Amino acid sequence: MTEPTHTPKPVAPTGATLAGGPLPEPMPSAPPRSQWVDVWHQFRHHKGAMAGGIVFLFIVLAVFLGPYLWDLDPSKIDFRARNNGPTWAHPFGTDQLGRDMMARLMAGGQVSLAVGITAMLLALFLGSLVGILAGYFRRLDNILMRITDLFLALPLLPLLLVMVLLFREPLSATFGIETGIFILIVTAIGVTSWMPTARIVRGDVLALKEREFVLAARSIGTTNLMMILRHILPNVISPIVVSATLGIANAIITESALSFLGLGFPPDFPTWGRLLFDAVDYMQQNPERVVMPGIAISLTVLSVNYLGDGLRDALDPRIRGR
């Protein structure tokens, strides 16, 4: 008795069908691009943002690396060279005490940028915290927004002046003059400029907490803390980043205004606003002493604003890809 034979089914060769026709070759699929690649692609096509980034990077490098190339002491006094115009020895001239203006401009830029960035971080933290709490917890929304409206209604400059006059001496006695004034200026600017960030973040959180992925996470028992950290906070990064860039510009302007009014850092501690304040009496004799700090403040604020515009467009998914 013979075993039954099984006729094998014909197998189509590679690249051909059973009928003899060629099979289409599979198209290689491109790996999906990450979100940050799309953000960078959109950002680098924003001409204003790229120009602002280049200018801001140049200012930062000039301020922090320039003193290593131009190593004159910004506090060195030379009465024989006071109130001089631009020369080879002092390209930006000297002040009323003979101190080199280029060195003081770079030293003042370090202080102004440090104040702007630190005050921005404080305002960003307070604004994001208030905005997320107000948008996520309904019972906190009314009281937090009323506090925000109260701060928005307060006159900013008089409030800053009162804070400086009240806390200048105690902080200077505790931390030293320079550190105490730095803490005071940063705190005063930070606690009076968080309100726009809070309102923007609250609006985004109110829209996000009704989205399907948030409802799904809540249905499986995700705690409020993990919900905020994993699902809410990553999706409000866009307005926070834009607020950060604009906050730097506002902080630099506010610090310059306080220093220009003589209520900022001490006279021997240069900032761009303090340089403007010291140069007012010599505006006709040495106009470059007013022009150079003014140009530095204007270029910094303008470049940061253009950076904020570019980041807003790049981080907005409705605009990205156009």
UniProtKB/TrEMBL annotation:
GO terms for biological process: transmembrane transport. Pfam families: BPD_transp_1 (PF00528), OppC_N (PF12911). CDD domains: TM_PBP2. Residues 1-31 are annotated as: Disordered. It is found in: Cell membrane. GO terms for cellular component: plasma membrane. SUPFAM superfamilies: MetI-like (SSF161098). Keywords: Cell membrane, Membrane, Transmembrane, Transmembrane helix, Transport. The keyword Nucleotidyltransferase does not apply. It is a multi-pass membrane protein. InterPro entries: BP-dependent_transpt_permease, MetI-like, MetI-like_sf, OppC_N. Gene3D superfamilies: MetI-like (1.10.3720.10). The chain crosses the membrane at residues 49-70, 111-137, 149-167, 173-194, 232-253, 290-308. Signal peptide: none annotated. It comes from the Bacteria. Residues 109-308 form the ABC transmembrane type-1 domain. Belongs to the binding-protein-dependent transport system permease family. This is ABC transporter permease subunit. It comes from Pseudooceanicola spongiae. The lineage of its organism: Bacteria, Pseudomonadati, Pseudomonadota, Alphaproteobacteria, Rhodobacterales.
